[in-house]
């Protein structure tokens, strides 16, 4: 009881420690709360919020050529008119009074060149900052859109100083300058610590799932290599590892600075990575699907083909203008992927009933993941109406649940199999040790009997010489002959084989089993160690006795044939049997006693390059093995 409490206490402490430090790590995924001042002229989003009223927020918007300065006219929705000529640079300035610890300015000028001044001193310029001056700028529009706002750190003595931003405007062909409306860029003033915290949080939100996927993939590959080096090849784990690597690639592909690191691609990198992750996951589930794996492989092949079609469409840059292209690129992969996942879950239910270790874990974990997704969606917001639910909306949460369940089930399956293998190896070693101990005990008993027989013979002969009565002398003579006789059923020329056969076969005869030896020829030495030879013969004979004594056997018998042929020692053991016993013989669980005996026989024969064959009939079971004779 105390030992059990200690185990549970250690498990609880481990979980608490992991949870505490995980919370500390996950804290970095959330940015710090910060003071943010929105100094923009317009609202955020496509439509103005209810009750929105235009405010210049302290800005003065003007144009300036040299020393001549003129304010522009607001249109009430964030735009200004009154340019002197198309493409003229506009300026907007205000005095900064907002208090911040680490003042940082963000300007969302997506397609216009800008310059920033503080009390007429240039802080930033897209072109030639040293020559930038208010009233002397001709700022163009940009050839490519900025993906991130321009971020500028302000000096700590910024309060009370005048911020001026210069911005280029569009040139509209055929439109008079007076009719052109210029929209100043959105401006945000915020704490730099919070901005840096946001970058850290963004990095952590990308790095943590990507690192977890990579670590899980590396673990599966390590387990696959481990099993391969222990003669238990499991190439299916490679598919699961590939699925995790594609998930990692998808997380990296959605990072804001992905294109700065890896360059731009001609296709949706993150979307394709997710599609290929699902393909690898389906291949892994198919490899675990037993006799019905063909059904999942067909769906997996069709799904992979649809993803390949989507990749070709992306690489060729085809626009999705027709219903057929939309179906091939968007609908078909999602439909086939969802059907394949449902088929895997349904087949998993069938395999669960047939005691598949993998699917016995996979099905409940996947269902639990789906239920967690539904519960989380319900708590976060009302579930969408049935008309709003699409397969594309459902596919990726279901895939995440399936991938998590597959990885956990695969790791548990491998670890439990390794534990069973280690336990079985210890049991086999113990069985071999017991077999050798039994042989050594038989050898000692035989030596003691031979010594006792030798002494008794001497004493009887002395008595025979001392008596003069003819009848007494004849009686002593007959006793001397009986003592000298040895009850040996086998005399093969190999001492160990003789001892084991005589012991086991005598016990079989005492149990009412008829014993027949056709040929009894064996080499004096074999290439096996004493332990191996003892384990081999004792397990063969014990299995034969068990089969002959099985319920339903009409005439129990054991028939042996030992001979030499073409450099091999051939041992044939046949026993009476019934069909039910033979069926169980071929379906033994690894840790059952009889199953261990068969494993020991197979291992020893394989280890020494021998041959092993079994034959069955309506009422017999025969084992034939051939071992090379050592030089």
Structural write-up:
- It contains 14 helices and 17 strands.
- The two termini are 58 Å apart.
- The radius of gyration is 43 Å and the shape is elongated.
- Helix 11 runs parallel beside helix 12.
- The chain folds into three domains: 36-43 and 56-196, Jelly Rolls (Sandwich); 235-426, no CATH class; 489-631, Histidine kinase-like ATPase, C-terminal domain (Heat Shock Protein 90).
- Residues 588-594 have low confidence and may be disordered.
- By secondary structure, it is an alpha+beta fold.
- The strands form four sheets. It has a six-stranded antiparallel β-sheet, with no helix packed on it.
Keywords:
631 residues, alpha+beta, Jelly Rolls, Heat Shock Protein 90, six-stranded antiparallel sheet, 14 helices
Give me a quick take on this structure:
This protein is of the alpha+beta class. The protein has 14 helices and 17 strands.
Structural class: alpha+beta
**Shape estimate:** elongated
The domain count comes to: 3
Distance between the termini: 58 Å
- Assembly type: single chain
Q: How are the strands of the largest sheet arranged?
A: 3-2-6-11-8-9
Number of helical stretches of at least 4 residues? 14
Low-confidence region ranges: 588-594
Number of strands: 17
What share of the residues lie within helices?
40-55%
Strand % is 15-25%
Main sheet properties: 6 strands, antiparallel
Mean pLDDT figure = 81
What's the alpha carbon Rg, rounded to whole Å? 43 Å
């Amino acid at each position: 009881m105390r030992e059990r409490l200690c185990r549970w206490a250690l498990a609880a402490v481990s979980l608490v420690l992991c949870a505490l430090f995980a919370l500390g790590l996950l804290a970095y995924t959330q940015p710090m709360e910060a003071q943010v001042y929105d100094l923009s002229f317009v609202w955020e989003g496509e439509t103005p919020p209810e009750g929105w009223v235009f405010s210049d927020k302290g800005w003065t918007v003007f144009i300036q050529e040299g020393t001549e300065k003129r304010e522009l006219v607001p249109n009430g929705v964030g735009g200004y008119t009154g340019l002197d000529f198309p493409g003229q640079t506009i300026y907007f300035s205000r005095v900064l009074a907002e208090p911040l610890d680490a003042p940082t300015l963000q300007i969302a000028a997506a397609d216009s060149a800008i310059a920033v001044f503080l009390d007429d001193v240039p802080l930033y310029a897209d072109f030639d900052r040293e020559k930038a001056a208010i009233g002397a700028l001709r700022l163009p529009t940009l050839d490519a859109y900025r993906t991130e706002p321009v971020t500028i750190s302000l000096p700590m003595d910024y309060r009370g100083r005048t911020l001026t931003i210069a911005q280029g405007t569009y040139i509209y062909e055929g439109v008079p300058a007076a009719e052109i409306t210029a929209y100043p860029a959105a401006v945000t003033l915020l704490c730099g610590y919070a901005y840096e915290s946001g970058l850290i949080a963004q990095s952590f939100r990308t790095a943590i799932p990507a690192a977890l996927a990579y670590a899980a993939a590396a673990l599966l590959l390590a387990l696959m290599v481990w099993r391969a080096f222990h003669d238990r090849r499991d190439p299916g784990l490679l598919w699961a590892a590939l699925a995790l690597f594609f998930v990692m690639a998808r997380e990296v592909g959605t990072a804001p600075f992905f294109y700065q690191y890896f360059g731009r691609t001609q296709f949706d990198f993150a979307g394709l990575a997710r599609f290929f992750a699902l393909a690898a996951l389906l291949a892994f589930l198919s490899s675990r699907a037993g006799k019905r794996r063909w059904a999942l492989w067909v769906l997996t092949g069709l799904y992979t083909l649809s993803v390949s079609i989507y990749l070709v469409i992306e690489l060729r840059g085809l626009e999705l203008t027709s219903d057929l292209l939309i179906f091939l690129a968007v609908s078909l992969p999602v439909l086939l992927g969802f059907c394949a996942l449902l088929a895997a879950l349904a087949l998993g239910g069938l395999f669960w009933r047939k005691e598949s270790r993998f699917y016995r874990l996979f099905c409940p974990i996947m269902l639990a993941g789906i239920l967690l997704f539904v519960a989380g969606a319900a708590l976060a917001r009302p579930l969408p109406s049935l008309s709003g639910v699409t397969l594309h909306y459902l596919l990726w949460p279901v895939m995440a649940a399936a991938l998590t369940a597959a990885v956990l089930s695969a790791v548990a399956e491998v670890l439990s199999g390794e534990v069973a293998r280690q336990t079985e190896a210890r049991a086999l070693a113990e069985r071999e040790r017991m077999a050798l101990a039994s042989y050594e005990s038989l050898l000692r008993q035989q030596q003691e009997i031979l010594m006792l027989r030798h002494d008794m013979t001497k004493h009887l002969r002395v008595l025979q010489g001392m008596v003069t009565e003819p009848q007494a002398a004849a009686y002593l003579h007959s006793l001397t002959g009986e003592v000298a006789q040895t009850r040996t059923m086998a005399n093969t020329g190999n001492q160990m084989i003789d001892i084991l056969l005589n012991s086991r076969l005598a016990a079989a005869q005492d149990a009412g089993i008829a014993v027949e030896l056709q040929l009894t020829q064996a080499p004096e030495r074999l290439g096996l160690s004493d332990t191996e030879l003892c384990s081999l013969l004792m397990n063969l004979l014990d299995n034969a006795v068990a089969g002959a004594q099985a319920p339903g056997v009409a005439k129990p018998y054991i028939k042996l044939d030992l001979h030499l042929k073409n450099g091999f020692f051939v041992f044939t053991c046949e026993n009476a049997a019934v069909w039910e016993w033979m069926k169980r013989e071929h379906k033994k669980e690894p840790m059952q006693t009889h199953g261990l005996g068969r494993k020991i026989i197979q291992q020893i024969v394989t280890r020494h390059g021998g041959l092993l064959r079994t034959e069955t009939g309506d009422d017999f079971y025969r084992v034939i093995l051939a071992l090379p004779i050592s030089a």
